Amino acid sequence: MRSTPHKSLTAAACAVAALAAVSLPATSASARPATATACTPGQVVANGGFESGTSPWTQSSTSVITSRAGESAHGGTTFAWLNGVGSTHTDTLSQSVTIPSGCSTATLTYWLHIDTAETTSSTAYDKLTAKIGTTTLATYSNLDKNSGYIQKSVDVSGFAGQTVNLVFTGTEDSSLQTSFVLDDIALNTSGGTTPPGDSTRTPAAPAYTVNLSSNASGTGWTGHESATFTNASATALNEVYLRLWDNYHGTCSAMPIKVSNVTGGTAGDLTVGCTALKIALATPLSQGQSATIGFDLGITVPSGADRFGYDGAFNNIGNALPVLAVRDAAGWHLDPYTNNGESFYSLAADFKVTLDHPTGLLVPATGTSVDTPGSSGRTITTATASKVRDFAWAAGPFSKISGTSSAGPAINIYSVSGISSSDAQSMLATAKSAVDTHAARFGAYPYGELDAVIDNNYWFGGMEYPGFVLDLVSTTALTHEIGHQWWYGIVGDDEYNSPWLDEAFTDYATDLAQNKTGTGCWNSVSWTSTSEKITNSMAYWDAHSSRYSTVIYGYGKCALHDLRRVLGDSVMAKVLKDYATSHWYGVSTTAEFKAAAQAATTTDLTSFWTQHRIEG
């Protein structure tokens, strides 16, 4: 669960202003034939990090794209610096881009830093405008000054099929400088009608072996990771991509996740904000062939009570292990990180993770853990997990209580300082009940044990990982996060492009566990635009973050309550349990769920999906 507004990230101090001008094609989108066109996912901005000179950018002066002192890059050494003159001045930066037709998702992202000598807290003297065509995407000013880079994300899917100029324009008034600094600009496209090809998801059957050793506080980990995998596709596998998700929490010049000394392939450049690393395989893999890559790994946990961060002496280490990206008929899924929700899409895998740490630190983790003595004053925790999509752990001087649910799984509650014993016991009781209740509805919990880390400082409410959750002291939130063991964990989905398949289904499961029927909840639905849909991707929700929780969690679960009323309680219960069984350790899609629901009734559900804005 990640239901709060997008959190800003900071980086090294830098400043940038940029403009992108757009020219519309002679034939409007509405005038073009409505035939479906294949969408080949890709990134259409060239030289978005400015590391390859100035081409194909058009700049108002030769000083816009620069590496001069006074500001710094988000990644690499070069950036775009607009304004910062301190007198009446305009700078522009533009590039013509083509957004492929047939793509339902097109997301413009860029990293922006603003510093200013203006002292006002109320007047926007100096401004940066981002435009595409004649459409203004965003406007910033000296009032938006910040201490480092912040990533901005804008949905530009309405321009699919058009060739346009991307424009950033910075203007200053007669005194007091404002610098607008821009770096790592990208425009990623995906979705829609996929090109013909092999729809098999690959690389399949990943198995990860990890050996890491921590520093005294658990904020730093170093060691080695290897990944063995098989090409399940009829199309040869020439490369793989590692997702280094937690590099979002730093900069490309100061990465929290560092991979080096790659074996089994050749590492390429980091892309997607340094969260994707291409590795060209030593030998292309035909269908059914397997390979292993290995690499040294360094993890630096940043400050903050987050899913990846430390809160005092307590470390949360989620999404830190590099995992393999997924390739299917749509190509490689290399979506950007979202702090508003989840971007994570991976296939079920096996993990064996050995963590060498000071004995004073308890280390709850995904999978079943065994502790053995290490060198003087240290303990080795070996965690083994089968058929999980990710691996997460924590490290700190936790208080621990344990129990067993009625159905058998072991439950461990790890509390930070400040959590009362009565609250810990309450969370243990909630976890036992939630595991058993969800298992009765959707299928037996398969992971042996469940660890829950409780901290009252989490700004995000809670977060799910296989066999491991982070949570506040909250019965509803913990029941929700444990529900994710089924909806995202066991029944997987593409969390970036179909977030409703895990969040709405889990919130619906939470309602059922708490005997809430959702009666009348759809009556309060009010859409803000025709483009707002339950099935929108995180690209849309990052651009409309204030509506994310309302639509994905609220409207999503209400739609499932409504579907239950259409199908009947017993039929809906059977649909979900059978659907979970048929997708156990697999991947769910909206189309497959709609088909399963339709197969359970003679009522035509077409108008239901339309009314509830469930597309796909």
UniProtKB/TrEMBL annotation:
Q: Which Gene3D superfamilies match?
A: Galactose-binding domain-like, Neutral Protease Domain 2
What GO CC terms are in its UniProt record?
Answer: cytoplasm; extracellular space; membrane
Q: Could you confirm whether the keyword Signal appears in this record?
A: yes
The answer to keyword Signal applying to this record is yes
The signal sequence is: 1-31
Q: Which Pfam families match?
A: Peptidase_M1
Where does the Peptidase M1 membrane alanine aminopeptidase domain start and stop, copy by copy? 444-611
Q: What is this protein called?
A: Peptidase M1 membrane alanine aminopeptidase domain-containing protein
Which organism is this entry from?
Answer: Streptomyces hundungensis
